[in-house]
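Hi R.,

As promised, here are both runs. First protein below:
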Amino acid sequence: MAESDLNKYLKNLPAGGKLIYHPKIKELIALYPRNIIMQVIHNLIEDMRNKILSSNSDGDLKDIDLSTDGIIPIIYDQVKSICLPSMGHIINATGIILSTNLGRAPLSKPAQEALINATRGYSPLAVDFETGRRGDRDTHVQKLLEMLTGAESATVANNNAAATMLILNSIAKGKEVLVSRGQLVEIGGDFQLVEVIHRSGAIPIEVGSTNRTHLKNYKDAITENTGAILRVHPSNYRIIGFTEEVGLDELVQLGKEHNIPIIDDLGSGALFDLTKYGLPAEPLVADSVKAGADVVCFSGDKLLSGPQAGIIIGKKKYIQMIKKNPLARMLRVCKLTVTALEATLRLYLNEETIAETNPTLKILTRPLAELEEIADTLVKRLSKSLEKKAIVQAIDDYSQVGGGSLPTENIPTKLISIKPLNMSTDTLGIMLRKSAPPIFSRIQQDCVLLDLRTVFADEVDLMADALESCFVP
């Protein structure tokens, strides 16, 4: 690269002192702090300078847009990304009900109201009302969990992986933990259960085979150094065909014979019978307690439809061991989690209304006829407003539960298919994600697809308005 070419591009770099007086930047200064805008401009110019100096060809240089028209939109985007909140209301039109990327389970209205109330000022997170002294933050949810599950005691960690690690570190650190080879799940983000066990300080001992594990496999693996038997419900996948797993009741009996605690990791966890609502059966938390498991853990932000949490219930002596572990302080939940979880659990006190008050269950069981009616209305509106701009139609498809729950369940749904005529589907997808509120969709076969199952009733018009605005010149 000739030095003269580099110097030419370096001389054309815009001056920050001049950019700040540009009419568009003055408009930005009226909305956001001047010092932030100046810092963004300075950093952007420095980035461009470094790109020029590191360029190896004329093509690299030509890709660097030094024009004011090219730079100002970048400044706008960067300033807004710093000054505007990135967490807020979005519309989930992906059809993935428990989307990890989109915050998993939506919170109920009572949980939302409880969060607002608890954040008005101070809150009684860890105080004893009788003495006025320090209390236990678990008291807000402990009695509810005991009542709903039949457990002797309960505590909460910040997610279910943390709960599993905390349990094992408290009960079986330095000892062997027996686990069926077919239950060594990967929990997302490339994190595998066997690594969680290692991090807990316990020693994983795989028993059985991938598809079949027998009681004899557990018996043969027991040694003087066996600290626990861990059963893991494969809530994010299924093995079908020539399979066999040992039932919890058999493991509990084996544990009693050898004085070995049984830990039952239920993953997504269910406090109610899903089959009542036409959904596949999931193991009930109360059934694990009734069967005699010493410690049970499950997620708060999946089927429970609460905040991210790892709920730990079980026999009092083990829960006390867990609560006394220094790791429990490191993995404990904050006042917002406690508040939302308490409000969520209270909904389960009335089983007759849970299908309406639990947002996840309500989405799972929305009648297809309701979605078809919404789809018809939207197609009529959008076909008219987007005439000659896009092809709009309603199509049949399936929603997914996601979030490591009900992995084989395909739920019939209705999609709005948008095939833009004057822009790419990727461009439309980006515009929707940048709309207010942001809308997340799926893209298939050159069409943007909006799954109505995960779009709430009060979001339908917002979604249509945003979609129409994407096609305004």
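And here is the second one, sequence first, then its structure tokens:
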Amino acid sequence: MRQFFESPRIAEVARGRNNNFNLLRFLAAFLVILHHAKPGNLLPIYWLTNGREDSGSTAVLIFFAISGFLVTQSFTRTNLAGFLSARALRIFPALWIAVPFTIIVSSFASAVPWGRYLTHPQTIRYWVHNSFLWDLQYTLPGAFLHVPLARSVNGSLWTLPAELRMYWVCAGLGLLGLYAARPAFNALLAALMVAGMIVRPETLPLVGTINVAQWEFTFLIGAAFFLNRNEIRLNIPLALALLVASKYVIEDPYMGHLYIVPAMAYATLCLGLHPALFFRPFTRFGDYSYGLYIYAFPLQQQMVFYHPQMNWLKRLALTFPIILGVAVLSWHFIEEPALRLKQRFRPKPLPPVPEATADFLVASRG
């Protein structure tokens, strides 16, 4: 119990795989699935944030906080080629399966004949654009016309372009030397936060909407936690207080979006890294969260299409094991094998110095 109230520095506990990040991402992916099963104010999150956030948007903040922390860490530990290859191998192999998977699943909810469906310009556009996260397409010919989330075939993909964009931002900030000059990075982040309070954040470069502004600020705050890991302490009561305060500290819905970002990021890092909360058994499993995220939506839409009168909770109970099964297969046969390839892009260690040369160097310095 005493460990619960301890406040270790992030640098003291962010070592190896002794963390809950896989568990948190899994739960966040489930929150997204839950939100798509029952949109609206289902969970206390909606009440706690005065309607500013729902389970889906909260889950995305969790994803971006963890991503900002780990992706920045990744950049500081490898070269540019290693960094970019690792990011591409994490995003694209499973995506290149999820896109045709969505096309096939959605075809069963379309009245368009199979041959015309596959060769339809809309289908080809969906395949090409979504495979490279460029100008995302959300509809397929005749698919899901009469369900609550009408026409949308895989709405979950809409966060991925922002995630990919932040990988490039992360690399750019690193190449500019801002990770080595930590005060400069902190000053830049503070300036961006102030700018977000003065003007609408969605008007800032590389943003576009208030949602994207939240995600990108959360990523940068996650990065700041990594860079300031020797100074920032993790305190569970403080994390809880920050979350509870989100209901009272700022009533204005617009400013509330800005408050929830650092509060949620700190709480996420606390849940992920504080040793009192570490749940070791989950580390034995793979990281199924990405598969849950990118394959779930079309399967949920299909269940609604075939069983429109079924209770949402029963639909979720029937659909989630299928989604989880697809995510497990994706991890073990697509994602994990792809990630193993990133070893080829890491800088090779220098060859060991021959003993005779080493002895000579020691003697010459003596």
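A quick note on the second one: The CA atoms of residues 105 and 205 lie 36 Å apart. Let me know what you think.

Best,
J.
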